[in-house]
Amino acid sequence: MTRRLLLGGGAVLERLAQSVHEQSGSLQVGTDDPETADALTERGIPVVEFEQFDQAICSGFEPPDIVGVFDERRERTESIARIAGSVFPNAQLISYAGWSAEASLDGLASLSDRVVDPAEALTDHLSARIGDRGQRMRQLQQVLREIDRLAVVTHDNPDPDALASALALARIAQAAGCPTEVCYYGEITHQENRAFINVLGMELRNLGPEDDLSEFDGVALVDHSRPSVNDQLPADLPIDIVIDHHPPRSPVDARFVDLRSSVGATSTLLVDYLDRFNIDFDEDLATALLFGIHVDTDGFSREISQEDFTAAARLVPTVNFGTLDRIESPSISPRTFGTIADAIQNRRVEGSVLMSCVGALSERDALAQAADRLLNMEGITTVLVYGIKDEQIFVSARARGAGIDLGETLRDAFGQIGSAGGHVDMAGAQIKLGLLGATDERDDSLHDVIEEIVASRFLDVLDADVGATATSPYATESEIDAEYLGEDSPEEGRNRWNDRPGDS
Fold first, then answer.
1. Which residue intervals are annotated with compositional bias (Acidic residues) in the record (predicted)?
2. Which of the listed residues 328, 355, 375 is the one where a domain comes to its end?
3. Is position 425 within any domain?
4. 503 in a domain, yes or no?
């Protein structure tokens, strides 16, 4: 629980105290301004009123984690900051510079961990909204105002980043007067993801092939960018909004597109939009977004950017960390443990590369957990785990210090017979089983055939120059077996392979 101490006086302190009082954590307020004291007391905020701030007064407060000194009088602010810094040397000290244009900030900066300059903050605020940086916000708002009912669709079997981003975009849409429903296809089987939804009480709609999308006159995609690729939407469905942090392989067609692969999570982008639209974070939304960033950056250790840290810092004061603890400590199903055991038992090691076919899958999310566990094996830098569910082959891959772009590697290996993509060190793919799913061969034979297809393609691409942009050799040098791809003839199989549908 974050402990905060606010000191000073005036309208800024009064408004800040009212805002912080509504957030999680504890708050103490001290002021020498009778009007500020009366206003806060009327709102039920306890206040210590003093005539002269000194070390004795300061020592009477419970030691805080954060001290904020907010007063329009620069000399008064410096005096309070100097005393508070000496009494609470381990607390973060934030001071307010006020509007004194002629006074230097050097003295206050030497006393504080951070100085809030209102002139600079106002300039940044206006620049983000009326300058070039605000153009995205204006375009998004215009699109939302033209939609009567919006479906915000995550990728199949959504993870916390996709779910949190969808909830945030729905909140923005509703603020623009656009009724919205958060939708997804597939299943949510990962125990953390189920806990994430249940603990936060998320309202989601699980779509199926039979659902008629005509009830929506607008569709938004979050955490992925193309219909029918990692979702079950029609490939020709018009898309209105795309917000994603995965790098695309081809242009994305939508009325509004925001693709920023420089950040570690789509949730980071949505925090930025919520701030720019001046939409307040409630506890559940802040908790969801922080968990989305945490998961997609692997605890702020993978593909992290300054924007991710800034977004997290913006969320932390409102997050319920007790809720986060409940989400991160769920029970694991016996079926997930079974998949992990199968992955360990069936592993095949080629140098520093480990591959494992687990056969039939009961829970798709178990693949990712198996890949995470196997990457910890000594001498292994790259892991590929795959299995079969609902007439499809699902692939989950992880890498660590392997010198490859795993997302590009999976696109080159599987992008032409399925959908694939991801990050440098974490990626996935899915391939329709085609006629193999209807084969009369025994399960062992099917297992062997799939293992040969998946493992050989993956190893071939790893052995090639991953950074090359030339077409995969499979496109021009190999005939694709029609039975394996589910086509009517080898020629049609090759045509499908060479069509290169683009990024997943």
1. 478-490
2. 328
3. yes
4. no
Helix (H, G, I), strand (E, B) or coil at 96: strand
SS3 state of residue 141: helix
At 60, which CATH number? Answer: 3.40.50.720
**C-alpha radius of gyration, the chain, whole number:** 27
Q: Is the pLDDT assigned to residue 503 strictly greater than 50?
A: no
Per-range mean pLDDT, top range of 13-27, 323-337, 457-471: 13-27
- Are 57 and 147 contained in the same domain? no
Residue 320, SS3? coil
- Is 139 exposed, middle or buried (CB count within 10 Å of its CB: 0-12, 13-18, 19+)? middle
Alpha helix (H) residue ranges in 64-105: 74-87
> Is the pTM higher than 0.70?
no
- How many structural domains does the chain have? 3
> Domain range spanning residue 55?
3-123
Q: Provide the pLDDT for residue 175.
A: 94
CATH number, domain with residue 428: 3.10.310.30
Q: Which residues have a Cβ under 8 Å from the Cβ of 375 and sit 6 or more positions away?
A: 383, 398, 399, 400
pLDDT tens across 27-51, in order?
999 999 999 999 999 999 989 999 9
406-409 long-range Cβ contacts below 8 angstroms, 24+ apart: 406/382, 407/246, 407/247, 408/466, 409/458, 409/461, 409/462, 409/466
- Please check whether residues 257 and 150 belong to one and the same domain: yes
Cα–Cα distances (Å) from 378 to 49, 154, 301, 374, 437, in that order, read: 61, 35, 20, 9, 35
Q: What is the DSSP letter of 210?
A: T
In one-letter notation, the amino acid at residue 37 is A
Quick check: is 371 in a domain? yes
Q: Are residue 307 and residue 167 in the same domain, yes or no?
A: yes
Q: Are 484 and 454 in contact (CB under 8 A)?
A: no
